[in-house]
Specification:
The protein is of the alpha+beta class. The protein contains 7 helices and 3 strands, in the order ααααβααβαβ. Helix content is 56%, strand content 14%. A 3-stranded antiparallel beta sheet has the order 2-1-3, with helices on one face. Helix 5 packs across helix 6. It is rod-shaped. The protein starts with 6 loop residues before the first helix and ends with a strand. The relative contact order is 0.14.
């Protein structure tokens, strides 16, 4: 019968494995014990500090048209440039404000879109 290894002895054995061997071991371990090793790693910290970290790491933004302003036709043109909407769809979007113009875009794309819409006279929010 095999002797029980201590945690240090197990770690010493894992040090000798290649990454491929270690990956295969993890897969075999997950299958044998019906667990997922990634779940423990993916646990997010709780509390206000965690919320601040998540806010800083946001990489997808929504550009929301909150109002068309005085130059509605110019705003419709910009909406059509930013999206692939037709004239009627773009007009409906502008008339139905507040509505999202772009969703889940990169920060720089969201800022450019917001500047374009503001330049046309619209009021815009980036979330």
């Amino acid at each position: 019968m095999a002797t029980k290894l201590s945690q240090e002895e197990l770690l010493a054995q894992f040090e000798n494995l290649t990454l491929i061997e270690l990956s295969e071991f993890v897969k075999a371990f997950e299958e044998k014990f019906d667990v997922t090793a990634a779940a423990a790693v993916a646990a997010a910290p709780a509390g206000p500090a965690a919320a601040a970290e998540v806010a800083e790491e946001q990489d997808e933004f929504d550009v929301i048209l909150t109002g068309a302003g005085e130059k509605k036709i110019q705003v419709i043109k910009v909406v059509r440039e930013l999206t692939s909407l037709g004239l009627k769809e773009a007009k409906d979007l502008v008339d139905g404000a507040p509505k999202p113009v772009l969703e889940k875009v990169a920060k720089d794309a969201a800022e450019k879109a917001a500047e374009s819409l503001k330049g046309a006279g619209a009021s815009v929010e980036v979330k």
